[in-house]
Write a structure and sequence with these properties.
By secondary structure, the chain is an alpha/beta fold. It has 2 domains: 20-135 and 245-292, D-Maltodextrin-Binding Protein, domain 2; 137-232, D-Maltodextrin-Binding Protein, domain 2 (3-Layer(aba) Sandwich), CATH 3.40.190. Helix content is 37%, strand content 23%. The chain is built from 10 helices and 12 strands. The chain has helices at residues 2-17, 22-28, 53-65, 80-89, 109-112, 167-178, 190-198, 209-222, 256-271, 274-281; strands spanning 30-36, 44-46, 49-51, 68-74, 101-107, 126-135, 137-142, 160-163, 184-187, 204-208, 230-232, 245-252. Strands 4-1-5-12-6 form a 5-stranded mixed sheet, with helices on both faces. α6 links the parallel β8 (160-163) and β9. α7 (190-198) packs parallel to α8. The termini are far apart.
Length: 294
C-alpha cells in the first residue's frame, strides 16, 4: 500500500510539473509567464499590483492569444541557467511549478550553444527566441560634484555607486589594475545606489541603461526645481568586454510552436511601436535589437 501511494505521488508530481503546449494553453484559456520579482522598471508586485515593462509585455502576449495572464514571480538565483531550470524546464525543488513562457532571458548565440564540462549543451531543454530590447551600461552623475564624465579614469578620484554582486561592481573593482576600487561603493540595489548619489554619498552611479534611465527620470521629477542637476553620461567602458546584448524570451524546447506564436506577437509589437511605447511609459531607454534591422 505504501508503495502504491508513493507511485501515485510521483505520477501526480510529474503531471503537475509538465510544461504545456500552445494548444494546451489555448484550451485551458490561461498562460503562465515568469517575470522577476522586485525588478523595476521591468516587473514588481507593489501593494498587490503587478507593474513594469515585462508585466505590460506579458499582458499584450496573453491578450493576443486571447487567454488569461497568470504571472509566476521569479527570485533570481546565482545564474541565468539556474533561473531557466527553476522556472521553465524542471521547476524549483520546493514546489516544481513551471511557467509556459519566461521573459528577460539572454538572447545570444554563444550563450544558447554553451556547453558544460563534458561537452553537453547547457540549454538543451529550452528554446530562446524573440529578443525584445538591447541592453548596455549607463552612468548617471550629479553635476553639483562632477562637470562631466569624459572617461572612467575619473573614478580614480570620485566615489561611484554600484549594485552589489553586479558586473559594474566587478568591473570597477578590478579594471585598470584596481585603480577605481577604493572609490567603488556597494549598495544592496541600484535604487539605493541612486538614493546614495542624491544624499551625496557618491558622485555617480553605474548600472543597466534601462534601470538607470528610469531612475534618472524619477529623481528629475523629485528635483524638478533643479532639472539639470542629474545627467546621463555618454562615456565608454574600456575593458568591460561585451557592452551590448539582447534580452529575449524562452519556452521549453518541446514546445517551439508556442515560441513561434509569441515571436510573431513580439515582432508585431516592435513593428507597430507598442514595444517602444511600453518602455517610454516607464521612462526607460528602448533600443531595437539588430535582429529586426536585418
Amino acid at each position: 500500500m505504501r508503495v502504491f501511494f508513493l507511485i501515485i505521488s510521483v505520477l501526480c508530481l510529474t503531471f503537475f510539473a509538465q510544461a504545456r503546449s500552445l494548444d494546451d494553453i489555448v484550451e485551458s484559456k490561461y498562460i503562465v509567464i515568469a517575470v522577476y520579482n522586485d525588478y523595476l522598471p521591468f516587473s514588481a508586485n507593489v501593494d498587490g499590483e503587478a507593474i513594469g515593462i515585462d508585466v505590460e509585455i506579458a499582458k499584450e502576449i496573453a491578450a493576443s492569444l486571447d487567454v488569461e495572464l497568470r504571472l509566476k514571480w521569479m527570485t533570481a538565483d546565482e545564474s541565468s541557467e539556474d533561473d531557466l531550470r527553476n522556472n521553465l524546464w524542471k521547476g524549483h525543488f520546493l514546489d516544481r511549478t513551471k511557467a509556459d513562457l519566461m521573459l528577460r532571458v539572454p538572447y545570444d548565440k554563444d550563450y544558447k550553444l554553451k556547453r558544460d564540462d563534458v561537452g553537453l549543451l547547457v540549454h538543451e531543454q529550452v528554446h530562446m527566441f524573440a529578443p525584445y530590447h538591447t541592453e548596455t551600461w549607463k552612468i548617471v552623475f550629479d553635476t553639483a560634484r562632477l562637470e562631466a564624465v569624459p572617461t572612467m579614469a575619473l573614478f580614480q578620484y570620485h566615489p561611484i555607486g554600484v549594485e552589489i554582486d553586479s558586473i559594474p561592481q566587478f568591473y570597477l573593482m578590478s579594471a585598470f589594475r584596481g585603480s577605481m576600487r577604493k572609490n567603488t561603493r556597494q549598495f544592496d540595489s541600484l535604487l539605493l545606489a541612486v538614493q546614495g548619489m542624491v544624499n551625496a554619498d557618491v558622485d555617480a552611479v553605474m548600472g543597466l541603461r534601462s534601470q538607470i534611465t528610469a531612475l534618472h527620470h524619477q529623481i528629475q521629477t523629485t528635483y524638478s526645481n533643479e532639472p539639470q542637476r542629474f545627467q546621463l553620461a555618454t562615456n565608454a567602458f574600456p575593458l568591460l568586454g561585451k557592452q551590448k546584448w539582447d534580452i529575449g524570451m524562452a519556452v521549453h524546447a518541446d514546445f517551439r510552436a508556442l515560441g513561434y506564436s509569441v515571436g510573431d506577437i513580439v515582432f508585431g509589437m516592435i513593428d507597430d511601436g507598442r514595444m517602444a511605447n511600453i518602455f517610454a511609459q516607464h521612462h526607460a531607454y528602448f533600443e531595437i535589437p539588430e535582429y529586426y534591422k536585418e
